[in-house]
């Protein structure tokens, strides 16, 4: 039961480094969270939580806790993979301060118009963060993800644009073509890649000496740079 109670303790941590919290109690008493000795970087949100009940005057309870920041939920099996000494016990770590979220969208009148919507969000936390700060943090995370995605899309667009420009400026001499097919194209005043793309397969077949094998070779060469005949 003590371990279950310890998992219900909620701390605010003002440090990126793990912090030590100690507990030393003797005698017949109910030991609450308020009995914990905290460093300046730690604040206990629920000091009235009962950790244990000592039922004998000679009873004593001593422990040292490690408190640190994290994200989400970590089972004790994962936490055991870290460096642990003899006598240490790993607990499931709950780093999620949000207990419940609900929302609803309602119609809203603005002046004479009734086609507006109102969004109501209900947030319940464990006390380590306010609902307002939780919502702001959620917005910040969402914005950072959207900014990252938009930046990546823009980079891909720019890369694709510069690549397309480079390809469409290519000479047919840059394609992997046999000298026979290259000469046929040059004799018909086809010198740039776009000039090939302007022609259909039937038009290319009509070129003297091209034939089906020549068109097939041409199509394979274009496919290597991501292009196809119309």
From TrEMBL:
The keyword Transcription applies. SUPFAM superfamilies: C-terminal domain of RNA polymerase alpha subunit, Insert subdomain of RNA polymerase alpha subunit, RBP11-like subunits of RNA polymerase. Its EC number is 2.7.7.6. InterPro entries: DNA-dir_RNA_pol_insert, DNA-dir_RNA_pol_RpoA/D/Rpb3, RBP11-like, RNAP_asu_C, RNApol_insert_sf. The keyword Ligase does not apply. One of its GO terms (molecular function) is DNA binding. One of its GO terms (biological process) is DNA-templated transcription. It catalyses: RNA(n) + a ribonucleoside 5'-triphosphate = RNA(n+1) + diphosphate. Residues 1-152 form the DNA-directed RNA polymerase RpoA/D/Rpb3-type domain. It holds the Pfam family RNA_pol_A_CTD. Keywords: DNA-directed RNA polymerase, Nucleotidyltransferase, Transcription, Transferase. One of its GO terms (cellular component) is cytoplasm. SMART domains: RPOLD. Belongs to the RNA polymerase alpha chain family. This is DNA-directed RNA polymerase subunit alpha. It comes from Candidatus Nealsonbacteria bacterium CG11_big_fil_rev_8_21_14_0_20_35_11.
